[in-house]
Write a structure and sequence with these properties.
It contains four helices and four strands; from the N terminus they run E-E-E-H-E-H-H-H. The longest helix is centred in the last third of the chain and has 13 residues.
C-alpha cells in the first residue's frame, strides 16, 4: 500500500482545467492518459469539494476514444468491474487504450 504522500494529486478546477501539483502545471486528458500508461499513481480531486474525481476523469478518457475502442475492450471493462471488484480501473485502462 502506498502512502498518501506518494500519490500524485491532480486538482480539477470549476473551469474544467486540471492542475498537476507534482509539476505545478496545467495538464490535459492526454497527459492523464500518459500517466495511466506510465503506471503512475495519481488521484484527481475537485478543488472546491475535495471529492475524488479519478473515476470520472478515467471514464472521460475512455469516452473520448469511444469510436476507436473495440467492443471486446468495453466488454472486458464491464466484466471486470462487476465480477472482479478488486481490480482497479487504472489496471484495466492501459489494456483498453492500446
Amino acid at each position: 500500500m502506498r502512502k498518501r504522500s506518494d500519490i500524485r494529486i491532480i486538482k480539477k478546477y470549476p473551469n474544467r482545467r486540471l492542475y498537476d501539483t507534482h509539476t505545478s502545471t496545467y495538464i490535459t486528458l492526454a497527459d492523464v492518459k500518459q500517466m495511466v500508461l506510465g503506471d503512475e499513481v495519481f488521484e484527481v480531486v475537485d478543488v472546491k469539494s475535495n471529492e475524488n474525481l479519478t473515476r470520472s476523469i478515467l471514464l472521460q478518457i475512455i469516452l473520448a476514444r469511444r469510436s476507436e475502442i473495440a467492443v471486446w475492450s468495453l466488454t472486458y471493462i464491464i466484466f471486470y468491474s462487476i465480477l472482479v471488484k478488486h481490480v482497479s480501473l487504472k489496471k484495466i485502462l492501459p489494456i483498453v487504450l492500446v
